[in-house]
Amino acid sequence: MHPILFRVPLPRTTLPLLWVLCALAGIAAIVAIYQFVTKNRSFAIGAAVATVALGAAAFVFRASTVPVGPLPIYSYGVMLGLSLVVGWYLTLGLAERDGLPKELMANNYVVTAVAAVVGSRILYIVTNLNEFESFGAMLDVRKGGLVAYGGFLGGFIGSLVFLRRHGIPLLPWADVAVPSLASGLMITRVGCYLFGCDFGHPLEKTAPAWLQKLGTFPRWDPSLIETSTGVPGGSPAWIQHVKKHLIEDDATASLPVHPTQIYESLVGLSLLVLLLVSRRYQKFRGQIFLLFTFAYGVGRFLLEMLRADDERGWIPPSLPEHILLPLALALFAVGYVVGISKMVENPTMRRLSQILAFVPAVVLFLALRPESFGTSATIELSTSQAVALSTGLAAAFAFSVYHQAALAHPEAAMAIPQLAYVDDEAAEKKAESNVADEDEDEDEDGEAAAAEKKAADADEDEDEAPRVKKKPAKKAQKAAASDEAPKAVATKKTKKKPVEEERTSEPPPSEES
Predict the structure, then answer these.
(1) Residue 219: partners with Cβ closer than 8 Å, 6 or more residues away
(2) Quick one: DSSP state of residue 403?
(3) Which of 240, 257, 284, 471 is the most exposed place for a label (fewest CB within 10 A)?
(4) Where is a 1,2-diacyl-sn-glycero-3-phospho-(1'-sn-glycerol) bound in this sequence (predicted)?
């Protein structure tokens, strides 16, 4: 296991916390001014609030210092960052396919991610208050200490507030967001495994050798990582086994336990495939979100039965183990029959799946049933189990309601309501494009008018050309006529001369006559 991937070499010193907070406040102020100038009022207000909050914190902690030294890069933090990057591209890609505004969805993703981290940390703190000695320890998330369901609830609330502020319906966004939650489970649980948290109960001695090797967590070098447990550095499983005297202090590794981190990572991968395939058969908006909520609820409830870490919190009432757990699985089966099973269109297969849904509850009851009445251990549900059961059942019944509405109005069920938000930047871009289009239209109209004028001039030239040609012809005819006129006169004269000659050549009349 590698809880720390590497360390960034930094000199060992201390920095006044006042400087750090003032620098952050200055950055927030610059962001607020920029957002105000660009007319993004919502972000401008948020940045302004952050500026005031950081300034107040700088005043309160003006005498405090922050130790600086080689910066450890924790494996869990790296995996958390990687999951956010993968979720970013996955969510925005699906949002673009569904016709949601990409830029606004990007802003919503940031809000959702921040709210998810805050929510997951808050739920962990609430369920493990005795673990923290100072306020600063509550803010340190590099070593883990996040509850997945707290992240889901925090992200849900954050996105709900943001989307309502911009007049966007929640369910279309939830459908494109939950696949990134599944991918996040797949990636972050690998970080949990590298750190060693969220481990399971000890394995049976008959477990396969490869599984025992996979579930063995080592004792760390005391200088590798700081601990506040009073026990030399080691993986959480090793520390717990030492505290419970299951192993000696000098043991090099923990007992082989269920690697529940890997189990949940595989659950995340399975959910990711299920959700992406189910998108092809989606009947109504919110279907993918409700399917994820129910399916993850079932998976998480079962995984919690294998978990052995103590930092989970417990919810009353206490009931015998062989009653509480099978009863919860039976409730999940009822939820499947009422809602989720409607996805199976074949009546025979749907009926068969509904019957099989009750098999896990029956099998678990038979496995946990005590030999004699009253000897079963009483247990409580963990915080995650209680949340999984309640949200899973709520999702199943909501699925039934939305599915019935989709059967009555299939087109309306898949339609995205008209978005009521006004995106200033998009409006400006649209206005600029309209102005550019108008300019292009004017240029095209001017060119068309010039072309028409040129064509008209060409037609006039063609009409005048025959006239010009006819004028020289007439002149030539007149010139030819003028040339022929003397000739005609001359011929007339020549014709008259012989007559006169004939007249002169006649003999004179005789005197006798």
Answers:
(1) 232, 233, 234, 235, 238, 251, 252, 253, 254
(2) H
(3) 471
(4) 189
Q: Give kind and range of the element (H or E) at residue 13.
A: strand 13-16
Phi and psi of 141, rounded to 5°?
A: -105, 10
Residue 187 reports pLDDT greater than 90: yes
Q: Tokens 């703190």 map to which residue?
A: 125
Residue 465 burial (CB count, 10 A): 10
Domain count, the chain: 1
Can you tell me the distance from the alpha carbon of 507 to that of 498, in angstroms, rounded to the nearest whole number? 16
Question: What's the pLDDT at 481?
Answer: 52
HEC letters along 208-259:
CHHHHHHCCCECCCCCCCCCCCCCCCCCHHHHHHHHCCCCCCCCCECCCECC
Distance CA 182, CA 393 (A): 19
The H or E element spanning position 324 is helix 321-338
User: What are the two backbone dihedrals, phi and then psi, of residue 415, each rounded to the nearest 5 degrees?
Assistant: -75, 145
CA distance 477 to 210: 119
Residue 144 belongs to some domain of the structure = no
Does 189 show up as a binding residue in the annotation?
A: yes
CB 203 within 8 A of CB 217: no
| Secondary structure, 3-state, 92-110 | HHHHHHCCCCHHHHHHHHH
- Residue 139's CB is within 10 A of a number of other CB atoms, namely 10
Q: Does 295 fall in a domain?
A: no
- What single letter denotes the amino acid at residue 394? A
Is 357 within a domain? no
Q: Does 489 have pLDDT greater than 60?
A: no
- pLDDT tens digit string along 363-380? 999 998 887 666 678 888
- If one counts every other C-beta atom within 10 angstroms of the C-beta of residue 428, the result is 12
Q: What is the mean pLDDT of residues 152-159?
A: 90
**Is the predicted pLDDT of residue 470 greater than 60, yes or no?**
no
The secondary structure element, H or E, covering residue 381 is: strand 378-382
- Structural domain of residue 8, as residue ranges? 1-69
Answer whether residue 228 shows pLDDT above 60.
Answer: no
The residue behind tokens 């990636």 is 187
User: What's the CA gap between 7 and 11, in Å, rounded?
Assistant: 12
Q: Write the CB contacts of 410 (distance below 8 Å, at least 6 apart in sequence).
A: 283
Distance CA 5, CA 212 (A): 24
Neighbours of 334 (CB within 10 A): 16
Q: For the chain, how big is the Rg over CA atoms in Å?
A: 45
Share of the chain above pLDDT 90, in %: 38
Distance between CA atoms of 513 and 509, rounded to whole angstroms?
7
Signed CA dihedral, 214, 219, 225, 229: sign only: positive
The SS3 call for residue 50 is helix
Residue 262 CA from chain centroid, whole number: 25
Is 4 within a domain?
yes
Is 170's pLDDT higher than 60? yes
